[in-house]
Amino acid sequence: DGSVRIVSRIYEIDPGASTQYTSETISYKEQSSDKKTFRNVIETYDPFVSLIDPISTQKTYYDIVKTTSDANQNRLAKVIENYEFGIDKPVLTQYVYFEKKETESGERLVQVIENILNIGGANFIESVLYVYYQKEDSRLCKITETRMGNFDSNDTFLVQTQKEYITEKGGKAVRVFEI
Hints:
The protein has 179 residues and is mainly beta. It contains no helices and eleven strands.
C-alpha cells in the first residue's frame, strides 16, 4: 500500500546467538476513516501464536471526544485504543488531557487519564486518574489519584493514591512506590 512500516524483532533468549525471535512489533501511521487525521499504530506479534494476526494492537491519535470534564466535556484529547487478539473493538480506550482539578492536596493542574472499557459493546468508564507532581521532604513526588464511581452523575470517590519518588539507598538510586 506504499506506507512506511518499521519492524522490530525482539530476541529474549541469548540475543547474540538466537535465531528465533520471541516477538515482533510493527509500527506505522494510518489515515483515519474521516481522512482528517492520522493514527500511530503499533502491532505486536508472537511467532508462537500468530504471524498473521497481532496478539495486541495500540492506536494513538488526537480527537475531539466527550470526556468526564466538568469544564469542557467535548474537548481535544489524546486517544489510546488497545485491542487484543481476535477482538475487533478496543478492550480499553484511554482519553488523556490536562485540566485543573480538585485533588487531595488542593486544586491544581493535573494530567487526566480516563480508562474506558468496552463491555458487551457498550463503553463503561472504569476509572479516572489524576496525575501530578508535588515537592515533599525536598524531593519531587509523582502522585496518582485513582477515582471510581458514577461519572455520569459526578458521584465519584477516591479509591487509591500512589506516590512515586526516587531516593538513595546504599549508594544507589531506588524508585519507591507508596500506596
